[in-house]
Amino acid sequence: MNGLWITVAVFLTLFVLRMPVYIVLLASSIVGIYFAPQTISFAQAPATLWQGVNHFVLLSVPFFVLMGDLALVSGVTARLVRAAQAFVGHIHGGLAHVGVIVNMIMAGMSGSDLADASATGKLLIPAMSKAGYPKGYAASLIGGAAMIGPLIPPSVAFLLFASVTNVSIGRLFLAGAVPGVLLGLMLMVQAYFTARLRGYPVEPKLPYRERIRVTVTSIPVLLLPVVVLGSFFGGIATPTETGAIGVLGVLFIGMVLYRELTFRQLGTQMVETVRAVGSIFIIIAAASVFGRVLTLYGAADALAVWITGITTNPIVFLMGINVLYLVLGCMVDTVPILLVFVPLILPTVLKLGIDPVHFGVLTVFTLLIGLITPPYGLTMFLLCKLGNISLLEFWRYMWPIFLTMIVALILITVYPPIATWLPDLVMGRS
């Protein structure tokens, strides 16, 4: 076990020094292999790197990332904002409700927290500020609403979870839908009472003729998530083919119908997608080697023995995991946590009789909260930059939204059917 502690020490040291994640994982793996209890060759590492990314599920990731990026520049988001504003803008906290609803619909196209936060933040933070909302509130509301993206299918986070656990992608996608909608409704209730308490402005109510016009204009956008998800759950297409269908749909809407997406923008977004996906895949490959090293040391079994020695109550265990994920999510990006820690914890999850689909939803939900939490929440920094505000200003308005998300997390933890009811209904009990 001495080699394991040395490996962990190297991992933590490099992490504290803020080295790139893939370097942290690879360097720790090299140290682990050197001190391994079994003699293994360093020559096996390249094969393990390849095996980590040679997974059919991961083929769909580039398409879903590109689909979200293209939605930002093709006029899709702007039309969703106008459609939502036409129907809920006149309610107390109208523009806040617009932000939540648009993120719920965008979730059916991108599946990325950062992509949704960027797309809606660029439009709604200036619009809410102009209407009289504080910038800090606008940014924090978008931060909470953007969490819905990776919960409602399709979801890149669920794809990564499935790649390391072999849990059904279809069940995970369905399991995230109800929690995503629940979170959206809770955020809208919170926004309503906040708007009334603080006297935020109300948008004028549009006449029905204008509502109909805006709705007709937005029909292609509203149908896109239906086509994307319908092709997958209808058994017509695989996850990879579904992603490709989504990209083609956004291209058709942006280039043919709305004519706002140019070939130059398409090229730019494809390059950005390659960069984003490349960084994800490097981490996946490095994490596969690190995970193999931890397996050599029996880390998962040791962790299972230690946890079950403390508690065998599934709810208490999940509450503890939630706290662990909240702490980790404040400091580490979602991808390495999914790839490194989930395989270590999963044996204990199965031993305690916890549904891995339920565990997957809790994992993604909790890690998403970390994206808007100091000190290193990526979504938080993005929205502070878009709103030109400080972290203190962001969290001045964020804490009630944060508490709302924690309440939703507790509900999903103590009542698993919130996550498991829909996949059990559609696909039968696992």
- Poorly predicted regions are none
Number of domains: 1
Number of H- or I-type helical stretches: 20
* Major β-sheet profile: none
Cα shape: globular
Fraction of helical residues: over 70%
Query: Which value, in Å, is the CA radius of gyration?
Result: 22 Å
Order of helices and strands: HHHHHHHHHHHHHHHHHHHH
Mean pLDDT: 83
For the terminal residues, how far apart are their CA atoms? 37 Å
Strand content: under 5%
Q: What's the total count of β strands?
A: 0
Structural class: mainly alpha
Task: Write the topology of this structure.
Blueprint: H1 2-16, H2 21-34, H3 44-53, H4 61-73, H5 76-88, H6 94-106, H7 113-131, H8 135-146, H9 156-165, H10 169-198, H11 208-233, H12 239-257, H13 263-296, H14 299-310, H15 314-331, H16 334-351, H17 356-370, H18 378-387, H19 391-414, H20 417-427
